[in-house]
């Protein structure tokens, strides 16, 4: 037998409620967390209907499977990935078909699972580790008999064959998952050129992501060994249904993680620079099946990288869609808001632009997660816009051929000013922003 998948009971109820109309199929995402022994599925989300869907425009469709829009399914997965906290990801897909399409369904699922993984990885700035599981789950459900067939594909092997997997349901699997919180202050400037500004921004963020990956992660103020258990000694007098909260800190320097020596000054011709500034709230969940501290550190670090890169990407997309519609030289990145995910112990997130309200967030939750969220349940306080350090975007074209020199590295052991720990770990923060400035010096600070 292959990998084992344990899904929340709410996933079973949701899948049971879905039905494919005559001559059609239903696709969707399976969301959760992987571990070395087994995977946990906490949410299932159907692919939203596309306006052009079902209208092939003269193209003859021999099978409902041929009418599945591969690009639309992958784009939905990318959008949903932005809404997930650290440690939680898209694990695979489900497909509901009529009985006569059961044999062809596996080929369709394989094609979709590889397309989804490729689309999500395209925006990813961090590298997979040896601990990462590359098997992705597919669940085929017959619309008439409701029989479910679970199989996996290794997305690192395009020629792989489907492997059988075990699928079962269990109640409350994520209610006791520990949660890690931290706030990160970012002050990063990236020199860019007119010809490839987007690529320069992506490369600059990727260099910064390497620093975060190589940083030292403290949990509850202590450095622990990678192989130590996260919950060791902390749950002896705690009920298994109670969720524990950990404070995380990330300490980094500007040394090149792969070079083993301090960075030297670099001369680079540029026309402007992009500055990412502000404080972001980060959150990650880790399964309670004997998790290691390295897994917890990895989850929160990846959330730091993802939340910053997602905001930059979203702002660039917004500016592209509204090209010429906003001549202001100052722009704010969207701030992160959270909402509890019903039927689990987790929260999901979204990014709210300054001109948006919780009603807009609730509408996106409904569209992308097929989930009704009350506006009052959406927590907008984690990154308060009224904070004095609210960031901006400014554009100036005076960089020319000036030198671009990194400032002296920040030592991980360098003392940092003491702050109100309750405020810091609760994530009272401001959203990051992008600023087009006339300088090209990169600088990164992370709060303790």
UniProtKB/TrEMBL annotation:
GO cellular component: a single term: endomembrane system
Keywords: Membrane, Transmembrane, Transmembrane helix
Family annotation (PROSITE patterns): PROKAR_LIPOPROTEIN (PS51257)
GO biological process, alphabetically ordered: intracellular protein localization
One Pfam short name: ODR4-like
Membrane-spanning intervals of the chain: 424-446
Positions of the UniProt region annotated as Disordered: 396-417
Origin superkingdom: Eukaryota
Localization in the cell: Membrane
UniProt family annotation: Belongs to the ODR-4 family.
Purpose: May play a role in the trafficking of a subset of G-protein coupled receptors.
Name the record gives this protein: Protein odr-4 homolog
Species of the source: Astyanax mexicanus (Blind cave fish)
Lineage of producing organism: Eukaryota, Metazoa, Chordata, Craniata, Vertebrata
Gene designation: odr4
């Amino acid at each position: 037998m292959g990998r084992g998948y344990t899904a929340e009971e709410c996933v079973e109820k949701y899948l049971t409620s879905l039905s494919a109309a005559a001559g059609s199929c239903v696709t969707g995402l399976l969301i959760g967390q992987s571990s070395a022994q087994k995977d946990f599925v906490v949410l299932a989300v159907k692919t939203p209907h596309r306006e052009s869907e079902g209208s092939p425009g003269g193209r003859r469709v021999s099978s409902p499977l041929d009418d599945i829009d591969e690009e639309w399914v992958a784009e939905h997965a990318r959008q949903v990935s932005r809404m997930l906290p650290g440690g939680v990801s898209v694990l695979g897909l489900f497909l509901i078909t009529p009985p006569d399409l059961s044999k062809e369904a596996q080929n369709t699922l394989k094609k979709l699972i590889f397309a989804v993984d490729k689309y999500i990885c395209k925006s990813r700035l961090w590298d997979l580790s040896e601990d990462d599981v590359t098997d992705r789950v597919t669940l085929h459900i017959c619309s008439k008999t409701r029989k479910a067939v679970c199989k996996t594909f290794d997305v690192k092997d395009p020629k792989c064959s489907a492997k059988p997997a075990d699928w079962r349901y269990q109640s409350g699997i994520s209610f006791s998952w520990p949660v890690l919180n931290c706030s990160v202050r970012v002050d990063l400037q990236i020199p860019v050129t007119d010809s490839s500004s987007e690529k320069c921004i992506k490369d600059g963020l990727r260099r910064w992501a390497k620093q975060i990956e190589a940083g030292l992660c403290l949990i509850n103020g202590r450095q622990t060994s990678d192989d130590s258990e996260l919950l060791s000694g902390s749950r002896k007098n705690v009920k298994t249904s109670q969720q524990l909260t950990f404070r995380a800190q990330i300490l980094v320097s500007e040394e090149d993680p792969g070079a083993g020596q301090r960075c030297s000054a670099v001369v680079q011709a540029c026309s402007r620079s992009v500055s990412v500034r502000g404080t972001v709230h980060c959150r990650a969940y880790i399964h309670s099946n004997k998790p290691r501290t390295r897994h917890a550190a990895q989850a929160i670090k990846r959330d730091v990288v993802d939340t910053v890169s997602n905001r930059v990407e979203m702002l660039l997309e917004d500016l592209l869609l509204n090209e010429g519609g906003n001549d202001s030289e100052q722009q704010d990145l969207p701030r992160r808001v959270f909402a509890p995910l019903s039927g689990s112990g987790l929260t999901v997130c979204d990014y709210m632009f300054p001109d948006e309200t919780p009603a807009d967030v609730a509408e996106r939750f409904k569209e992308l997660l097929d989930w009704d969220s009350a506006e009052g349940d959406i927590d907008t306080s984690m990154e308060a816009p009224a904070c004095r350090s609210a960031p901006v975007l400014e554009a100036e074209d005076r960089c020319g051929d000036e030198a671009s020199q990194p400032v002296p590295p920040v030592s991980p052991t360098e003392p940092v000013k003491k702050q109100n720990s309750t405020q810091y770990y609760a994530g009272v923060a401001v959203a990051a922003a992008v600023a087009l400035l006339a300088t090209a010096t990169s600088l990164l600070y992370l709060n303790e």
